[in-house]
Amino acid sequence: MALPAIRWAWRQQVEGNAKLVLLCLAWSADTAWSVRISVARIAYECGISERTVQRALKTLRQAALVEPVHTEQPSHYDVPTYHIRGDKLAPYTTTTVV
C-alpha cells in the first residue's frame, strides 16, 4: 500500500465509480505507484461489475490519471499493470456543506 498514492487519489476531481476504482488502485499500488491487478479483482474489491470497472478505467485513462503499462509479449492470462500518474495532480478545491 502506498499511502501517498491514496492521499493523492482522494484529492483528484473524479466522481462516482471512477473515484472508487482510483482508490482501489492506489490502495494496491507499490511505492512506485504501479499496480498489477485484474478488472475482476477491482470489481470484487469495489463491489461493482466488471463492465463498470472498465468504464471507470477508461475515464481515468482519459483524465490522464492512470496509464496502462504495456508488456513486451502480452498473453491471454496476463494481469494488466497500471501506473498511477502522481505527477498529474488535479487542483484541490474545498466545498462547504450547508
Describe the protein in words.
- The chain is of the alpha+beta class.
- Helix content is about 45%, strand content about 10%.
- It contains four helices and three strands.
- It has a three-stranded antiparallel beta sheet with strand order 1-3-2.
- Helix 2 packs across helix 3 and helix 2 crosses helix 4.
- The longest helix is centred in the first third of the chain and has 13 residues.
- The radius of gyration is 14 Å and the shape is globular.
- The C terminus is likely disordered.
Keywords:
three-stranded antiparallel β-sheet; disordered C terminus; 98 residues
Helices and strands, with pairings:
Elements: H1 3-11, H2 16-28, E1 34-36, H3 39-46, H4 50-62, E2 66-69, E3 81-84
Antiparallel strand pairs: 1-3, 2-3
Helix pairs in contact: 1-2, 2-3, 2-4, 3-4
Quick structural gist:
This protein is an alpha+beta fold and 98 residues long. The chain is built from 4 helices and 3 strands; from the N terminus they run H-H-E-H-H-E-E. Strands 1-3-2 form a 3-stranded antiparallel sheet.
Terminal CA distance: 34 Å
The portion of residues assigned to helices is 40-55%
Secondary structure class reads alpha+beta
The value of Rg in angstroms is 14 Å
